User: Fold this.
Amino acid sequence: MAAAKMTVAVEAGAPGSAMLDIAGLNVSYPVYEEEPVRAVQDLDLSVRPGEIVGLVGESGSGKTTLARAVMGLLTQPGRIDDGSIRFDGKDMRALSENQLRAIRGRDIAMVIPNPRSELDPLIPVGKQIAAVARAHLDIGRAEADEMALDMLKAVHIPDPTRRFRAFPHELSGGMAQRVVMAISLVCSPKFVISDDATSGLDVTVQAQVLDLLRTLVREHDTSMLFITRDIGITAHFCDRVAVIYRGEIVEFAETASFFDNPQHPYSVMLLAAFAHNPALRNKWHKPLASTEAVAGRACQYAPRCVHREDACDERHPDLRELGARHHVRCHFPVERVA
Amino acid sequence: MRILRYIGRRFLFIGPQLFGIILVSFLLVKLIPGDPAVMMLGPFATEQQIAMLNVEMGLDGTIVDQFWIYLQNLVQGDLGTSWQTTKPVFDDLAIRFPATLELITLSLLLALLIGIPLGVAAAYFKRSIVKKFSDYYGLLAGSLPDFWLGLILIYLFYTIMQVAPAPLGRIDFAVLPPPPVTNFLIIDSLIAGNWQALWSTLGHLVLPVITLAVINAGPILKMTQATMERMLESDLIRYAEMCGLPKTTVIRKAFRNSLPSVVTIVSVLYGFLIGGAVLVEIVFSWGGAGQYAVQGVLNADINPVLGFVLFSAILSLIIYLLVDLIYFAIDPRIRG
Amino acid sequence: MTDITAGHSERSRWEAFVYALRFLFAVLRARPLFALGYFIVLLVVVLAIFAPLIAPYEPEVANPVDFLQGPSWRHLFGTDATGMDIFSRIVYAPRIDLTIALAGTMISAVVGSFIGAVVGYYQEGGGFGSFGAGFVMRAADVLQAFPVFVFAIALVAIFGQSLESIIAAIAFVNAPIYLRLMRSQVLAIRNMRYVEASYVSGASDLMIMLRHIIPNSMAPILAQLSVNIGWSILLTAALSFVGAGVVAPTPEWGSMIAMGFQNIITGQWWPSVFPGIALAVTVFGFALVGASVEVLADPARRRALAGSLRERKKPA
Assistant:
């Protein structure tokens, strides 16, 4: 069923009608008397209506910074140096704070991980869902409460009428995660960013929550940027997969193409890490001997790459299209994995 | 039901603490060099009186006996007599504590009105004039001696402009005070319907209240600002921003979550001011409890000091209990 | 080999020092208020040291002919009711005020944080240590339940009105602050992985205390220290104001304000106003230094500050 929907989604996404379109985005954090940390570099990414795009990267690769940049909520002292972020035809960087406020939670919603300190400890969770609905939709208190209760049912929280009045500290991790999903989906947003949303949960709960998230998103034909550290999840969850390394997209392809034929050594390394074959794992993994600085225009992945060649240290590779909609940033794309 | 259990647990701690306070103050008195009987009866006591008191207080017995007698007197509400006023300390304090409480309660209310809005605004508008002003204010208010500020206000508004009443007590000499019921002059005037007394009382309160409020708004402002700043950077508020909640809702949310630390600082200030307002009381000849105690210490009149220490300790315990009840009301995690 | 490494570490230490110094100056340029704080504190210390050279009159010599003169070129800040020159007395005052405040604060910081460290270290160990720690904390509760000011006056009354007893009183009322601060620090640090690791690898309690716990808990203590010195100056002045501290004619700001108390109602403002300003400015200076230490000693806030320095530089 998921596969059938997926093809529909891909076809629906005609070029130029992207829900989210990021082009040439650069985000950096200044550091005293040193070069600023470039958290996101020349990043292009687009998500079409109804599409789920996975964004995979290790911690510190710039995933969360990217999500925050899209929402217009970078943490201090981070700033966008250049590039454009277009959402649903609007230039997000040109919008005022109040216009952004109207979009956040209404059109773009964020699902966050480990919602322990994010939910307001002093307010019952039902009221928190209702507050978001009331902030964006022109409805009364009673109607908002009803919507909140419906959402609690929709995210399969057992005994929703009682849980409506529960405080966050009375909920388990999985249940709090469902509440956060309810908050993000209550206004039926056009676009959802899920930032590593299930990383704090037990594996069994994680699967349930993910299933639910996908079902809800597909039902409403919502687009989603699915940020994760777990490349395995993207295989059955996403329409397209992007791999991010040190703030750069290194590979971006349709899911089937990506998993059939991964072409960046880093992607292969991530995939091999899941393999049950130790020989394969070791073949693609190179322990980083030192925190070798990446000199000038060299390929960022070069110090960790098992296929490093001289060219890798001299020229910075561009993201180029190899095959149908399969983009790779590598001078020597991988042809055969094993 | 939970709340009763909570209060009960609190009271379990209060008992030993109160005992500790009584013990320490008793021992402090024992440390003071000189004949305690002479100190309690004053310099005009006769030999006979001293001998009688020695027997009465068990001063020729062991220190444990003396403490036991002291405790028994306490339980009967007997705090001894002040040789300066020649009245029972309990009666003296019954007048003077309301004077102090009236003063510091109003001062802290005004301080809250200054400190909280400024603190919230300074935390929210990070690069604004308000933030600059609050930074200076917080540092400056902590640096000003309150007794000096009181003097300056007296000089400006009494000596020069002659709009404030003379800094000599709680009410004009010419005005007949209302019959004492609670000894809070505002309340008593209201009960008696004596508008002239009320007006005079309020007039006398203005300068000392401003003095204490200006100084004590500093810590309230700093605490509000610091907590709000931390709150506004917290995951909680960042998430509220992600959900696109309106600005006012976000600020209210941050403030509500900062409230416990604001309540804490106010309770600390209140406890401190019971004795700490003494300098301002002296400047305005207020006749408050702190002033009574300080005069006791300075003139070796020991019963008022002990009485004051005990009264204020009990009062601070009551305040802490109230604070716990407030926490209980605002935070479901404590209830749960 | 050893020589080379020694030289290397020497040079890098020097470089680190230079870096820290440059950073400090950059901070002071960007935060002029901090610079003002250091300037005030320095100025007060200089006044205290060179008072005899700066003051135009003897601070304790009354000249009854010249009593209650307003500010003039002859008497910069005027004279008080006994005819003593107020400016000279203000210049001399930090000698006693600073001595009392510094000594009182230092003693309370050392004693308080030592007890706090021991209490924090043994609190969770169980057995006799825990019992003792609990007892000390309850005792601190009781002491802090006393009204600070009356307590301090009572202590001075008990020990007799001398410099030492004022210092002792100030140390006594301040000590619980450091005790609590240090205890909470030690409790937090004690449970850190690296402390556990060093415990597991057989380090003695004393070693752990000296190597890990004390160095890592110094930052908040230092910040508290500076603010506390200012506060102790205020307390000294307050004690003297009510007559339980430094006795006139010794030049001291609080007692000077008290001496001018009666004059202010009849319109002679200068005997009280000038010492009050001197007192407030000094305390303000120490508060500013405290604020700067608080920022600089906290790695997270230091980094945030450094980030903002960088931003300031860019557009220029």
